[in-house]
Amino acid sequence: MIAVACAPDDPSILAPDRLDERVSVLEEYANGGLVLLEERIAKAGAVSLETLFIHMIQEALAETGDETPTDLTTEILNL
C-alpha cells in the first residue's frame, strides 16, 4: 500500500509483474526509517531504547494533537 500512496496516479503499480517496484519502495521507506532511528539513538546518548521510544511516541502524539492515545500507545507508555 505504500507503493500506491507513492504513485496514486498509477494503479498498475499493483500488477503482479511490478512486484519488484513495490518491494523497492518498501525498502526505501524502511531504510529511511532506520536512518531516522539511528540519528535519534545517536542524539539520545545514554538513554535506554525504551525511554527513547516512549519520548518519540509522546512527540508524535503532541504533533498530531491526539490527546487520546490508543490502547497500544497506552501500553507502551506504561512500560
Architecture overview:
- It is elongated, with a radius of gyration of 17 Å.
- The longest helix is centred in the middle third of the chain and has 26 residues.
- It has 79 residues and is an all-alpha fold.
- The chain starts with a helix and ends with a helix.
- The chain has two domains: 44 residues; 34 residues, no CATH class.
Annotate the secondary structure layout.
Elements: H1 2-6, H2 19-44, H3 49-64, H4 71-77
Rounded mean pLDDT is 83
Q: How many structural domains does the protein architecture include?
A: 2
The value of Rg in angstroms is 17 Å
Tell me the quaternary state.
single chain
The percentage helix is 55-70%
Please count the beta strands (DSSP E, at least 2 residues each): 0
Distance between the termini: 31 Å
- Shape, per Cα inertia axes: elongated
Quick overview:
The protein is mostly helical. It contains four helices and no strands.
Task: Give me some keywords for this one.
4 helices; 79 residues; 68% helix; 2 domains; mainly alpha
